[in-house]
UniProtKB/TrEMBL annotation:
Transmembrane segments: 12-28, 35-56, 134-159, 193-212, 224-247, 253-271
Record GO biological process: membrane protein proteolysis; signal peptide processing
Pfam families, alphabetized: Peptidase_A22B
Alphabetical list of InterPro entries matching this protein: Peptidase_A22B_SPP, Preselin/SPP, Presenilin_C
Species this chain originates from: Cyanistes caeruleus (Eurasian blue tit)
Protein name: Histocompatibility minor 13
Keyword terms: Endoplasmic reticulum, Hydrolase, Membrane, Transmembrane, Transmembrane helix
Amino acid sequence: MPETITSRDAARFPIVASCTLLGLYLFFKIFSQEYINLLLSMYFFVLGILALSHTISPMMNRFFPANFPNKQYQLLFTQGSGESKEEIVNYEFDTKDLVCLALSSVVGVWYLLRKHWIANNLFGLAFSLNGVELLHLNNVSTGCILLGGLFIYDVFWVFGTNVMVTVAKSFEAPIKLVFPQDLLEKGLDADNFAMLGLGDIVIPGIFIALLLRFDISLKKNTHTYFYTSFVAYIFGLGLTIFIMHIFKHAQPALLYLVPACIGFPLLVALAKGEVTEMFRFWLSGSAHASGSCLMPEFQCSLFHAAALSWSLQARRAQLVRAAMNPLLKSCLTHQDLPTSPRCLARRPAWLIPCSRNCPVPADAGSRALVPCSHCRWGPLSVSLAR
């Protein structure tokens, strides 16, 4: 299941990353680098095989013939017995997945024995693709917080200290893509590499993926923001390589990628007059994206008749409970809230407070109600159900 990054997670991320980076640096200074890398190699050997197998599986399915004997398997681990039995692992796979796993294992053994840069890059790309697939940003503001925080993190640890460069050079694991600078001279045996951390791929990647979802939500059959941010990423990466070549010094890639990936789409949004829509866009959860109204037609009408009479100042939860609680109690329960486009189509845009007085924008032209991070079913679920 994809993991959604909230604004709180985004604010914490640079701090957690800094602590992890500094911990690795101290580990390499205190303990033997050989034993640490041996342990990490075994760990990433297993993870890399699984990630690469998952990545190539859709592509490999095209090469299997129609009459391929594909059998289904299930790996099930349970704990306890009888009514107290609890599933620990329940994984279903088939023969095609086993073939992909075998091919990935060949790459894994190649990496484990030779540490070849091609095997490293195959695992690194697999990790990156899985990271973009499994991590989602809930809105553009969260993406800006995450990218902005990691911008400072990257600049500080590269220019302010030698920690980042030391860890990157000492860490023999596929957490970076390496590009041989002496490929023309030594061919596949090249040993002089430039490096690009996977974080410089995954973090901008999940932001670009969010803009692609925003493009789709506009229903204009264009991917303007996706293509703009993708070109911006290529531009920022090219600029990083150019500066690194000129100054002969390691460069924090996010120093150039963050302004490009945020600035270019923002300029396009300003030109098209869609800045408000961009920052209002919210990656809804399944409860908000289902498209089914949770209230009967009559109750929904009563709700909107009451809601449209509210002023902006009276939208606080305390005032709503005091002034309109008798009416709303008769037609609302904890989970009876309008969370579908059908409900939103009957009212204009307004701001509604959640149970903790967080103003959450809900636009009549949007595809789904913008959820509040404090309220699972919608901004009014706790405030009005009392």
